[in-house]
Design a protein that fits this description.
With 311 residues, the protein is of the alpha/beta class. The chain has a single domain, classed as TIM Barrel. 33% of the residues lie in helices and 17% in strands. It is built from 10 helices and 11 strands. It has helices at residues 3-17, 62-65, 88-91, 101-113, 128-140, 157-162, 179-186, 191-206, 235-245, 276-289; strands at residues 50-57, 70-75, 97-98, 119-122, 147-151, 169-172, 210-211, 217-226, 251-255, 294-297, 308-310. Strands 1, 2, 3, 4, 5, 6, 7, 8, 9, 10 and 11 form an 11-stranded mixed sheet that branches. The radius of gyration is 18 Å and the shape is globular. The model is unreliable at 303-307 (pLDDT under 50).
């Protein structure tokens, strides 16, 4: 979608969705906080978006980082708050600075001036109205990067529909396949059901990954799956769902980088790295699923590489 079409789409959405903050149901927690009156939701978000960092990131999948990096904006707070979150100062404690729409717009434009390949919005679900307002301001000033939505997969279909025609690339996790794991990891037994519906909606909006002549992502869906110790992620079920229910050619990034952080330290299962055998089993399941598009990481034990290799 070109910039003028995005502006029209955002003008339709930005104004009317701000009222959602009065009784917030932006995320699946649906806590009902009146964020415009000063309350904070279960996500930790208030009336103004809070940003932890904005920089060119080179550690994403190859079509996303490319040679010039992905313009990554990390938002503070999170609906999931996984016990092992490596970004727990942001997600659990809200580390960052308030960014009203004008300031957020400047962050977006500043990244574009650095020549990054895309605008990578990380964990932004609880700030959708504020992000849409800032994007509208940026587009009016010539912003023209693909917009990438980088998230946990714990998204309501209703909120995702606010992003339809605005987001070009979806980069969700599909973390957990069972209600038991969702409860253990994030107090979210509904995670598998919510994530399945969210991925179907994302696929409806953008379809499989499309890259340009240089191999850089322009549109589409990439699903990340982090292999967890002791089979906690339910990798077989996750990959089976992707193979059966998402469009042929959907790209999967199989990740081996799990490291216990924060509340996972000392946990009887989640308190350790995955073994070589556990990741090899996940790779076998990926091959068995018939999914061909995507990437897998190289398992390197304690010195785990975060580099991605083509499947």
């Amino acid at each position: 979608m070109n910039a003028s079409a995005k502006i029209r789409r955002l003008e339709e959405k930005a104004g009317r969705c701000k009222e959602l903050l009065e009784k917030c149901t932006l995320c699946p927690r649906a806590c009902g906080a009146d964020r415009l009156a000063g309350a904070r939701g279960r996500c930790g978000g208030g009336a103004v978006a809070r940003v932890a960092s904005a920089s060119a990131h080179h550690g994403e999948e190859p079509p996303i980082s490319g040679a010039r990096g992905s313009g990554t904006v990390f938002f503070a707070g999170c609906a999931m708050r996984c016990v092992f979150c490596q970004n727990f100062p942001l997600s659990h404690y809200g580390t960052g600075n308030d960014a009203p729409p004008e300031r957020l717009k400047e962050r977006f434009l500043g990244l574009a001036r650095r020549g990054v390949h895309n605008l990578n919005l990380v964990t932004g679900s609880h700030y959708v109205p504020q992000i849409l307002e800032a994007l509208l301001l940026a587009l009016r000033e010539g912003f023209d990067l693909p917009v990438l939505w980088n998230c946990s997969g714990y998204e309501t279909v209703e909120t995702l529909r606010l992003l339809d025609g605005v987001v070009d690339i979806y980069l969700p996790d599909f973390k957990l396949a069972s209600a038991k794991a969702g409860r253990e990891v994030a107090g979210a037994p509904d995670y598998p059901r919510v994530a399945r519906a969210a991925l179907v909606e994302m696929a409806r909006q953008v379809g499989p990954l499309v890259v340009d002549d240089e191999g850089i992502a322009r549109r589409g869906l990439v699903v990340r799956h982090l292999v967890l110790p002791g089979g906690r992620a339910g990798t077989r079920q996750v990959l089976g769902f992707i193979a059966r229910r998402l469009p042929a050619g959907t790209a999967v990034s199989l990740m081996a980088q799990y490291t216990p952080y924060h509340e996972a330290l000392g946990h009887p299962v989640l308190g350790r790295r995955i073994t070589r055998e556990e990741y090899a089993e996940a790779e076998r399941l990926l091959e068995e699923s018939g999914i061909e598009a995507g990437w897998r990481q190289e398992w390197e034990g304690e010195e785990q590489s975060t580099a991605n290799s083509q499947q």
